[in-house]
Design a protein that fits this description.
The protein is α+β, with helices and mostly antiparallel strands. It has a domain of 96 residues. 37% of the residues lie in helices and 13% in strands. The chain is built from four helices and five strands, in the order E-E-H-H-E-E-E-H-H. It has a three-stranded mixed beta sheet, with helices on one face. It is globular, with a radius of gyration of 17 Å.
Length: 148
Amino acid sequence: MKNVQALPINRIRPSPAQFHHSVGGPNSSSTTATASTATATTATATTATALRFADAVAHLGEAARSLGLTVPAFRSPPRLAQADRSIKRRPDGGSTVSVRLQGRPWQAVLADLVEGVVVANALVGKAAMAARSSLWSAVVSEVPHVAA
């Protein structure tokens, strides 16, 4: 058995340019594409993936904390098979926002993440609108592949 060093996942945040994938599979002689470049396909630019989800959640968490909001836990997919988004309140006062990624446009996933922060903090009216605006601004300006 190999000696493998475990790296703390929460400390790893490579730039989007470091995420490469082989077009055509591992045995093809195809070229390598970068999902964050202008050459990305429309499907790649609009599809929700676990890496994009993790990156967006990290930026949303930073933005929520800067607004003095409680940051919920995030997970995917929701346990309810028919739900695209759900929220679970925990006895300790926290909450978990679950969002479905598969088969959904990336913008819909982002909207559910932002709304999850708003609902988890029980914001309504002007406070909710101000929080949504700030959270969207943070995601669009910090996550390069959001605006695609």
